[in-house]
Amino acid sequence: MRTINLRIRELRHKKKITQQELADIVGVSFQTISKWENGDSLR
Question: What is the rounded distance in angstroms from the CA atom of residue 25 to the CA atom of residue 23?
Fold first, then answer.
C-alpha cells in the first residue's frame, strides 16, 4: 500500500500541476503541499 504522501505526489504529477496550483485548489500554501509530499506533516 502506498503512503498518502506518495499518492499525493503521484496524482499531482499525473494531472501535470505544480505544488502551487494544487495549493490554490485546496486552499493551503505550497509549503503545506511540499510538507505533505515529503511526509513532514501527516502525523
Answer: 5
Relative orientation angle of helices 30-38 and 4-15, to the nearest 10 degrees: 130
Predicted model pTM: 0.82
Confidence (pLDDT) at 1: 46
Residue with cell 505526489: 9
Report the 10 Å Cβ neighbour count for 22. Answer: 20
Total number of domains in the chain: 1
Q: Determine, yes or no, domain membership for 20.
A: yes
Residue 43 lies inside a defined structural domain of this protein:
no
User: Rounded to 5 degrees, what angle do the CA atoms 32, 38, 41 make?
Assistant: 50
Backbone φ and ψ for 13, nearest 5 degrees, come out as -65, -40
